Amino acid sequence: MIFLAQDVDSSEVFALKKMTCMDSETVKEAVREIELYNLFKHPNIIKCIDSMVTICPTDSSAKDVYMLLPLYKARLRLFSPPTKERWKMKKMKKILQNRRERCKTSST
Hints:
Layout: E1 2-6, E2 13-21, H1 24-39, E3 50-55, E4 63-70, H2 83-107
Antiparallel strand pairs: 1-2, 2-4, 3-4
């Protein structure tokens, strides 16, 4: 899951990626992803600002891996999927529009 996060001091906005890992192998994969973000130094590859691993509050046998990433605002274009999928996309587009309107309302 990706969350929108804001620094309370600077008001800077970030993307917070949360990965719930059910076993040690998936924790290793998530930590490897963090390492890879920081391994490459290229303007087209984002850098992980910070990360942490915690015990999942809803399942003590699982772990949550968090990654704080820069937020890049961009307009995404939705392409028309095949006809049988079109109604699902229209519904998703409506949900996204409603969410965007709520975010604008809450930020003003």
